[in-house]
Input
Amino acid sequence: MAEAIKDMFNKPFFDRFTKDLRLVVKGLDSRAFVSQVMDDNWEGMEFKRRCWHIASVLKKHLPADYKNAIAKILALLDCVKDRYDFSKIDDSTFGLSLEYGWVLDNFVEQYGLDDYETSVAAIEKITQFTSCEFAVRPFIIKYPKKMMKQMLVWSKHEHWGVRRLSSEGCRPRLPWAMALPGLKENPAAIIPILENLKDDVSRFVRLSVANNLNDIAKDNPETVIGLAKKWQGKSENINWVIKHGCRTLLRQGNADVMGIFGFDVVKNIAVNDFKISTPRVKTGDSLVFEFQLLNNSDKKAKIRLEYGLYYQKANGTLSKKVCKISEKEYAENSMTQIVRKHSFRVVTTRVLHRGLHQVSVIINGKEFEKHDFELM
Output
C-alpha cells in the first residue's frame, strides 16, 4: 500500500531537517524539537494540519522577530545549497524534498502576511529550492494588484522554479490550496504571465501553464478558447500546452475547441453493433463492451474517440465521467472493431453504488445512444 502523504513527515525527515537547522540555530535541541512536533495530537493530524503544526514548532526555535527568523531560514538554504545543483533546469523535481518546502512555505504563510517585502523576498529564494505555490496565495488575496505585478516580474526570472511559481501560484483552482475567487471571476491578470511562459524552456513550467489554462477554462472557457486560437501553431511546445490546457473543454465536447484541434463535426461516421459483454458487473470486476466504428466517407477522418460512463449516485441520479479511448485518423470507407474494458475496482476517489449505470460512445464531442448495465 502506498505511503500516506502525511507520513512523509517521519523520523528520517526530522533527522535531516534538525541536522540542517542546527547549522544556523546554535544549541538547537533536536530531541525537544521532534518531541514538540510529535505530540499527543500528532497521529490524529492530517497532512495540511501537520505542515501548519511543524511550522508553528519551528517558530519556537527561531528568533521572535519575523525578519530575523526569515534571515535564519535563508541562511539555512545557503548552508545546504552546495549539496544540490540548482543552476540547471530540472523537469521533474526540486532540489530539496517537498516536505522541506511544505514546512518553510507554511512558516511564511503563517507569520509573514503583514510583512510583504520580507516575505516576497523569502518566497523568491525558497521556491528555488522547493515550491511556494501554497504560501503565495494568501498574499495574492491580501495584496491582489501588488502581488500579481510581482508574479509577472517572476515570470521572467532566470530560475525555472521562480518562473513556475508565477504560474502555479496563481492557478484559480490549484488542488489542496485555497481558492482565488477574484481570479476565478476574472483571470485577466494571469494572462500576461502565461503569455511569457507558454514556450518556456522548462517542461515543468509549460506544464504549469497548461494546468493554469485548464483551471481558467472551468470558469471562463471563452478566455482559454481565445488563447488557444491565438497561440495555435506557434511551436510544438505551445501546441502541447494549449491541447493539455483544453482537456476539460475537450471532455465536455466544446465545439469550438474540437474545431481548433481538427476534430470536425461528425459526418458519415457511425457506431454499429454495440454490445455489452458484462451486463451485470460485480464490484471489483470490469465492464466489457465493444462496437464497430464506421467511416462511411471516401476521405480519412480524424477522430477523438471517448466513452461516457454514467455512475449511480447515492440519491439515485447518474453522474457522467468521460474517458478517452484514442485520437487518430481512420481510413476512408473503413470499419474498426473497438473493444474496451472499464474497471470497477474500489478506489478512494469514488464511492461505488450498486444499481443502474450507463455507457455511451462519444465521437468528436457528439454523444451517441446510452446503454444500460447493472453494478452488483
Notes: The radius of gyration is 25 Å. Residues 203-219 form the longest helix (17 residues). The beta strands are 269-276, 280-281, 286-295, 301-312, 318-330, 334-343, 355-363, 366-375. The chain has 16 helices and eight strands.
